[in-house]
## 1
Amino acid sequence: MTAQTTTVYAYAAPAPKAPLERVTIARRALGTHDVLIDIKYAGICHSDIHIARAEWGEGGFFPVVPGHEITGVIAEVGPGVTRYAAGDRVGVGCFVDSCRECENCRAGLQQYCTGETGMVGTYSATGRDGQPTQGGYSQSIVVDEDYVLRIPDALPLDAAAPLLCAGVTTYSPLAYWQAGPGKKVAVVGLGGLGHLAVKIAHAMGAEVTVLSQSLRKKNDGLHLGADHYHATSDLSTFTALAGSFDLILNTVSAGLDLGAHLGLLKIGGTMVQLGVPEHPQSLSAFPLVAQRRSLSGSLIGGIPETQQMLDFCAAHDIAADIELIRADQINEAYERVLASDVRYRFVIDTATI
């Protein structure tokens, strides 16, 4: 068993807004219930860019190694590990620990941990060893087995990586608000989250509509499983679709006219915020009270639900549409994400680190 910290290569942002560069980082010694994972692939999430550029405030730690869409193979396990063995195909999502004792943790909702530690992010948080956590843009990672997911054999490791964040981020509200036959679901934005929301909602049996700024990706959206596709830059869309939807998932991080989008909901419908804009947004209460509509939010998923999502995706042949890149293309990929120039998720081949 690994009895001391190990040094691995990674890509880190040395300071807010600085380009990422190749560095070495230390991984903690393998504990009793830890697994050492050889990382094979790491997805690039828009959250990575927000953190690397300090767009959600000046907190966090630098240098920071982003990456919370991680797939790989277990290289070694601690003596108390019971769930996994060397050679298992596994993944790590947005958090690597929590208090384990609060009501939410006991209910498998670790993402909403209210304990002293809170949800411990995969990067830019404080780990159990007191050191800043560092993410998946690296060669390996050490994680407690309770926060590791099993990747079904039916899912390729590269295309499965984005499921660990983008997949569960969209699956969770679709499951919670019971998307399925007879339900009309709209997905705002056809990007990394949006394209998986379309696939998952379609597999659940819902009638799916994409709401995008333009019709540029219409053929893609219909191919992914959408039944309808409309441009929000055409103001007649909001008139034609008024009162149409049971559920709207807003997957974009840019500011929206929330009132106009809420007007697309049926009586009692819900719009769920998944993307987090850099700046606060304002909203009149009238679109809510006039039709008993709700504006809600959803944050990833707990460990049980994330495993449920992976199994659902394997059963329905759902994985991310990806563009595989080398590690030295990360900075270029960041700029392309901001320009919406990716179909639909960048995934880093960590063998190139």
## 2
Amino acid sequence: MKLPRIYSLEEISKIVNADFIGPASFPVEGFNEIHVVEKGDIVFVDHPKYYTKALESKATIVLINKKVKCPQGKALLISKDPFTAFNVLTRYFKPFQESSSTIAETAKIGGNSVIQPNCFIGNNVEIGDNCLIHANVTIYDGCKIGNNVTIHSGSILGADAFYYKKRIEGYDKLLSSGSVLIEDNVDIGALCTIDKGVSSNTTIGQGTKIDNQVHVGHDTTIGEMCLIASQTGIAGCVIIEDGVTLWGQVGTNSGITIGKGATILGQTGVTKSVKGGKTYFGTPVEESRKKLKEMAEIKQLLRSQKK
């Protein structure tokens, strides 16, 4: 998330009640999760396992729970609880905004677009031209919908990321300040859920078609001209490149990449990144020919043992 203006390190330190290492005037332009950080961003880290990754990331300000050597050209914010401090930033710069009507006054709806009864369109939503939003669709604040998009009944765009930290007293939620971006000519079936990014966008690329009852997790990017069949569950921070087909009841791990033009057969568990241009099947995922051959060999072995 980019800040409304450039803040100084000292200003941010006062907001999150943290000490800082670096010039007081060091510029801060935004805050983001590690997989989407850019120069000028704050990234948070609260586990030694990920210190190096955070310190070597593109982020130029690291919100961390231990005094460490500050990398050249960067700055540190030292907090006992970076997770909570990150939430403080979200509340400060992206507070929850109530809606008083089913279609917010700040929503922008393009020409020839149709919004059917009982839809909720949140604050600062943008919907392009020639869209059809069927009954009982919910579009949370800040979502952006392109032109010629169809969204079927009961679908929900922009719910919070499923992101929690386990504490003694229970699970602590990481607040979401991101959004959902739907590009042109996308179809979204009935009862789909597309979560917004923690600090960036969840994106559905141009021309992609999504069947009923599909879930897309936070910060996932789905490319152009993809086909996603019913009851597929896509975890957070997944990259699905252009022209990918996911057949019914596919599930994925988080943080993986599915290469351009890949086909994932039904009920496959995509447990790792896979290359494009091939067909995959099974759990754990393998190339379909290899997996089917293995299954045939196992059957043959069992038959021979019975004899």
## 3
Amino acid sequence: MKHIYMEGISTSSTIFFHTPSNRIPDFFYYPVCIGRYFCNIPYKTDRNRYDSFLLLYTKSGKGLLSVDGQRRELLPGDVCLIDCYRPHIYQALQEWEIMWLHFDGELSRSYFQYLTDKSFFHTSLKQPLSYEKDWNRLYEQFVNHEAMVEPLLSQYISQLLTHLALAKEEGGYKAAPDFIDDTLKYINRHLSSDLPLEFLADRVSLSPFYFSRKFKEETGYSPYQYILTSRINLARFYLKTSKETVKNIGYTCGFKSEHSFCTAFKNETGQTPSEFRRN
């Protein structure tokens, strides 16, 4: 693991590098580097070239991707496959937790071209927790200092790419309805406010029942679960990167009391906020 000294990135962020065997078969994928960043403004990566492909997944918060004049806001549950052989920029627009992987291999470009004829492929995953689970299996190989078995690493990367292929085949690559994008942006900008279902539905002139059903179809979460998960993820960020009290962080993230915050946090993570911060 390499320590990170970069403006806008929390010191609790991680990055691991990998040098593949010189005998690796052409049909294997291999990781170049992998990491989990807790970012905030002014974090920005601006490169002319980085010889690899990048899987960039937004766990929480919001970022912005720019490639060849195309721009895309990145929200929780979004994953992009980027051709880093071309100039590219990605940056935090607010607190932004990202799980990323640079990888390569002889088949990488063919897979990329199967997904898209543009500079990057973007989708909002319908089952983001499944993607996170597969990503963590690869990430934990590095965290736990396990032996790097090239066929296994290739398999893990292939599984991550399969999520994107399924999204393409199922039509998941199509843009979500405008009211979903608008609602996600609104929620992420107002996590400290009350966000009742009736209010969110009324904002976009839909009935609560229809709004809730379409929201889950597009995001994989109910509105309540999405808001709760977003608040917990924001709280995790503040616990890692600030010295604010648990009580103040809870209020900042939209919880009405310290007790409700601690209860929800432990139900979601298995730890109290204080335990999470210590660990």
